[in-house]
Amino acid sequence: MATKQTPRTSVIVFPFDLFGGTGTGAGAELLGDALHEMFDDNALESRATRCDAYRDLVGVKELSFGTTKALNAWKQTGRKALKQSLNAGERVVWLGGNHLSVLPVYEELGAGTLVVQLDAHLDIYQLHDVMPNPANGNFLLHSDAALPQIVTVGHRDLFLHPKEWRGTFAQAFSATDVATDPARVLNDIRTRVGKANRVWIDIDADVFDPAHFPAVHQPLPFGLAPLAVLQILEAAWEAENVAGVSISEFDPGRDVRDTSLNLLGWLLEWILLKWYEG
Ligand SMILES: [Mn+2]
User: Which of 79, 88, 113, 274 could be cross-linked to 104 through a Cys-Cys bond (beta carbons 3.0 to 4.6 Å apart)?
Assistant: First the structure.
């Protein structure tokens, strides 16, 4: 009888940061470097550790956008990289620059996937100071494909009426909803992921309260505490099939004593254990 092989994980470093959030590309690269360093350290360890669960099962793929040609092809490059990994049965950690850098992921996943999104913003802005072109604040309006079903959690929007977001989001839970009735939010997520064929978790780092995560371009107060984020991730992970996780909007130039870097470094290890310790 053939045994099912343990899936590998591809970490895709995708440092695209044009049209808002310049500097976040360096964040994606820094996280890629941090993972390399962690794997090197793990390899030197001779006694058994929890890292053995994913040792030799995770690879890091670094893409770059240093030429005009590469920039022009950014979306096709992204979709192709994701498609290759998914077709190979791999799980994916997408280390993006700005939130727009996750658009190829949304397009490639398409309508059959549920995205549990954590974000301070409802990225559907068409305001006077947001470009009509795709940008990190409106990228969900610029998809070339049918969007996945999205449930967004942790926003602090005080501007848009629900009728404006209902076409884009299946549900939007604000940070206030998380604080006042966490059980309702968590149960909703559990129900949705229980029915989904495939789940993707998309973390825009500005979902965290700036006290815990200062390294973002548009820090909004009253954000989620790290433990509230973990509760949401735990609920999303009740899914049979978490195909991947994306992380974006980390700008190391705005970090304070590596607070944000350490938070994401810890979270990446936690994510790998979540998959491989089962
Ligand atoms: Mn955001």
Answer: 79
Task: Kindly give the distance from the C-alpha atom of residue 210 to the centroid of ligand 1, in angstroms, as a whole number.
Answer: 12
CA distance 51 to 191: 31
119 alpha carbon – ligand 1 mean position (Å): 5
Report CA(19)–ligand 1 centroid distance (Å): 13
**Distances 191 to 167, 183, 187 between C-alpha atoms, Å:** 20, 12, 6
Q: In angstroms, what is the span from residue 40 Cα to ligand 1's centroid?
A: 32
DSSP 64-121: ---SHHHHHTHHHHHHHHHHHHHHTT-EEEEEESSGGGGHHHHHHH-TT-EEEEE-SS
Question: Which top CATH class is 9-276?
Answer: alpha beta
Q: Report whether 122 contacts 172 (CB < 8 A).
A: yes
CA-to-CA distance for 53 and 265, rounded, in angstroms? 17
Kindly report whether the global pTM for this prediction surpasses the value 0.85: yes
